[in-house]
């Protein structure tokens, strides 16, 4: 274990663009190596189609940034980064299916069920979800067993009925309903927030961190998750399909409540900015030195155009 | 860890019926306590409907019988037994959906998508799969972290693209195709066999076992998995819906290859008997004393009428 590489403290001049490019390259390589390889029939094709060459990789970047903040084990962080992306990818595959959102466009490409048929989309999503847990439990000892178990624990809780899947169930039940802000907040804190928070928690679990720093980083993650959803709702109203890479206006069409429909467009934008400022304060409160990437990711989330 | 209860060596007079009743009661209680509790919207109802009050619980019984053979930790074995049943249950929910087998009857009840709608069935299946991994990674130390990681590893591999999900993909691609016996065997070894073998492997992972005994028990598990599928194909031809609890003749109707269509009915029955005898030999080869439950489960698999 002592010989496994750890993240080094960042150089004093932190270049986010270079950092992100390097991390994205690393994540794409790892995903390409691990997803849908030697897989029977065309299941592997559907899995790779769902995961590779697309997506912002926000969750993997959060894992890696958090792992860097605590100087965690690189091998564990790479696996955690890929695992959380697989959960995200599977949720999109299933969410796009005709019985759910019935969406035909995702990341500018036909959705998986359009490309491969519904049965294969269903199976590919199932296989991606469980692959996440396979990645987290390598048989070699490069990742200590206690870390493996903790990563599985964090991911399973975030993805399940008391996390992402539960949020989707509330979302499903809320179509045509008028939600209060508290109800909307709860739905999103499960549907989207739980996995974003788990990304930060899993990154931290790759290293050692004080209770104070841990609480501050979890507060950062909660604020980021909320900001992410507010910006998502804003973009659903103002962006076009080409920029967004998916069909815009779906939520409004489906009569789903959003932060924009609840607060109005400009107040929603201002709310996102306020959440961003609070997330920076949380990072400062952590007392950790290497939070530049986490800080830049929060900026990216609030400033994104798709 | 040393204070955690372990399975005791069985009494010299082993009563399978009493053993099974006690184990089933234990598993039902544990599942009822863990599945779909405090779950948002009606997701929990769909999860509980899919899991509780139905099913033969063959996989949990295999976990518990294997754990007993190696005098494993009871707490770990209970969690492993429930986890493997959740994977089985989720696979049935998704397999029954219109885009897959489009089955309306399961265990004598309407299938989950008939009862709760397709979207909730999809979500409930997803939530059941991930709950399996949540059960395997309790935050308390009653189950050692290395055991937690090993149980997750075994289950993830068995359920994923190189196991159950991969077998389902082959099955999907095989409709209307003429398969050789080798191809049919491979499909079932993934689709059904992988999870049955994982049940035995997970039970063994709850204790300590010699390499020889481990190999013998895995051979037992492979033979049992194969026998299970052969008997399944026989029952699909000879049983009626009331006995079977699901729509019979589906495989023949769907032009799916089966052991019966390949070998004929009587040779398939004889093959199942031969596999049973070989599985008993594997148990004898293990050198383990407490294999009575495993032996009786093999007998049950080959003799079952549904």
TrEMBL record, chains A, B:
Residues spanning the signal sequence: none
InterPro entries cross-referenced by the UniProt entry: Isoprenoid_synthase_dom_sf, Polyprenyl_synt, Polyprenyl_synt_CS, Prenyl_diphosphate_synthase
Reported cofactor(s): Mg(2+)
PROSITE patterns in the record: POLYPRENYL_SYNTHASE_1, POLYPRENYL_SYNTHASE_2
Keyword Hydrolase: no
Swiss-Prot/TrEMBL keywords: Isoprene biosynthesis, Magnesium, Metal-binding, Transferase
Record GO terms (molecular function): metal ion binding; prenyltransferase activity
GO biological process: terpenoid biosynthetic process
Keyword Cytoplasm: no
Membership in a protein family: Belongs to the FPP/GGPP synthase family.
PANTHER family hit by this protein: FARNESYL DIPHOSPHATE SYNTHASE (PTHR43281)
This protein's name: Polyprenyl synthetase
Organism: Comamonas aquatica DA1877
């Amino acid at each position: 274990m002592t010989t496994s590489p750890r993240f080094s403290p960042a150089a004093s001049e932190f270049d986010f663009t270079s950092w992100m490019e390097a991390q994205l390259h690393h994540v794409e390589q790892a995903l390409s190596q691990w997803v849908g390889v030697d897989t029977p029939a065309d299941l592997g094709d559907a899995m790779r189609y769902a995961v590779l060459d697309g997506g912002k990789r926000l969750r993997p970047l959060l894992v890696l940034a958090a792992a860097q903040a605590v100087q965690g084990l690189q091998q564990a962080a790479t696996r955690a980064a890929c695992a959380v992306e697989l959960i995200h990818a599977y949720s999109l595959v299933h969410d796009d299916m005709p019985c759910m959102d019935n969406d035909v466009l995702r990341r500018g490409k036909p959705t998986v069920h359009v490309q491969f048929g519904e049965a294969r989309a269903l199976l590919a999503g199932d296989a991606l979800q469980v692959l996440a847990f396979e990645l987290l439990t390598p048989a070699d000892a490069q990742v200590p067993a206690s870390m493996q178990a903790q990563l599985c624990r964090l991911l399973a809780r975030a993805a399940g009925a008391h996390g992402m899947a539960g949020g989707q169930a509330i979302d499903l039940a809320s179509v045509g309903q008028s939600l209060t802000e508290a109800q909307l907040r709860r739905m999103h804190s499960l549907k989207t927030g739980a996995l974003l928070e788990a990304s930060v928690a899993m990154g931290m679990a790759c290293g050692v961190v004080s209770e104070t720093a841990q609480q501050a980083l979890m507060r950062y993650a909660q604020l980021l998750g909320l900001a992410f959803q507010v910006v998502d709702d804003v973009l659903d109203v103002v962006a076009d399909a080409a920029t967004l890479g998916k069909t815009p206006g779906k939520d409004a069409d489906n009569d789903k409540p959003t932060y924009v429909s609840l607060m109005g467009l400009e107040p929603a934008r201002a709310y996102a900015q306020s959440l961003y400022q609070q997330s920076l304060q949380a990072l400062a409160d952590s007392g950790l030195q290497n939070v530049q990437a986490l800080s830049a990711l929060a900026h990216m989330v609030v400033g994104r155009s798709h």
